[in-house]
Amino acid sequence: PGAHVVVTGGSSGIGKCIAIECYKQGAFITLVARNEDKLLQAKKEIEKHSINDKQVVLCISVDVSQDYNQVENVIKQAQEKLGPVDMLVNCAGMAVSGKFEDLEVSTFEVKPYNVYITVAYPPDTDTPGFAEENRTKPLETRLISETTSVCKPEQVAKQIVKDAIQGNFNSSLGSDGYMLSALTCGMAPVTSITEGLQQVVTMGLFRTIALFYLGSFDSIVRRCMMQREKSEIADKTA
């Protein structure tokens, strides 16, 4: 309660839901996004969940992908009004779907300073960003994506906030998410000895399950490739 939480991409989707979840727990919120109208709309929605009359939702319209100095200035303004930032949630941006060869090239140590990181692996989530992603998603990717259900942003946000508060390095949702985070843990830090032991013990089982997943995904890709080749032959003979 009383923590200052800054959420980039906080005007919609998972970002907005994380802001709501933190607000429910008494936090002060700074929303950062490009669209001012969406920011004000999100602010009204978040304020409905206040637990005391001292809470504040501050809106800042800025493109975090552009001028760093401008971003730095608005964060300073937020700190002057609501105090030091206790939690920074980066939800700005969206997935860019497409084949690797078709995508354009773009560029995109904190522990000694007592800053801790939680890396979230959200599943397919019913957000405006996911809807936009589906517009350019290749058939293979869409079919693979459809093998699992789409989650609600409120559900995803609640899990991310819970893991961040507990200091967990990884945040995942559901059995598939847990399995993926365990399989890709590598040199990632662990929150407890128990977590590390669980990863060691389950690694073999999860790898076996993953091989079945990969077999299914490969089958989908092959079927799509054969279908595409048949279509190309039909077009040539037409």
From TrEMBL:
Superkingdom assignment: Eukaryota
GO molecular function ontology, one term from the record: 3-dehydrosphinganine reductase activity
Cited InterPro entries: NAD(P)-bd_dom_sf, SDR_fam
Coiled-coil region list: 32-81
Keyword Cell membrane belongs to the record: no
Keywords: Coiled coil
PANTHER family: 3-KETODIHYDROSPHINGOSINE REDUCTASE (PTHR43550:SF3)
Protein name: 3-ketodihydrosphingosine reductase
Originating organism: Saimiri boliviensis boliviensis (Bolivian squirrel monkey)
